[in-house]
Amino acid sequence: QVQLVESGGGLVQAGGSLRLSCAASGRTFSVNAMGWFRQAPGKEREIVARIKWSSLSTTYADSVKGRFTISRDNGKNTVYLQMNSLKPEDTAVYYCAAQVVPGGPYDTWGQGTQVTVSS
After folding, report:
1. Residue 24 CB burial class (10 angstroms; 0-12, 13-18, ≥19)
2. Which H, E and C letters describe the chain, residue by residue?
């Protein structure tokens, strides 16, 4: 089992920055990839960024490319989401999640952290 604990959300003005953290513990050797998702009120959950656990290759949703950066600190088993040039439409609850089986579901989730961007 993998456990995930998120931190770093908050309230920021448009154009500002926040960094989210996701600390992983437990059977982290089994993780294939980590993703950051978000869900805004009345909208479906969407993936915003993904990082392969071993290769550190990354992918991003078009809506955040060039503004968000996902990274991993190997020594701390922590995944970060650096969010710059934030927009009001980035307001959502952000979740990190772990994928064990390549191509399979993200089956372990953090508790979520609120990000609110004021205009």
Report:
1. buried
2. CEEEEEECCEEEECCCCEEEEEEEEECHHHCCEEEEEEECCCCCCEEEEEEECCCCCEEECCCCCCCEEEEEEHHHCEEEEEECCCCHHHCEEEEEEEECCCCCCEEEECCCEEEEEEC
As given in the structure block, the two tokens for residue 77 are 């088993």
Per residue in 1-57, pLDDT (tens digit) is 899 999 999 999 999 999 999 999 998 889 999 999 999 999 999 999 999 999 999
At a CB cut-off of 8 Å and minimum separation 6, what does 113 contact? 6, 7, 8, 9, 20, 93, 94, 95
| CA–CA separation, 68 and 83 (whole Å) | 4
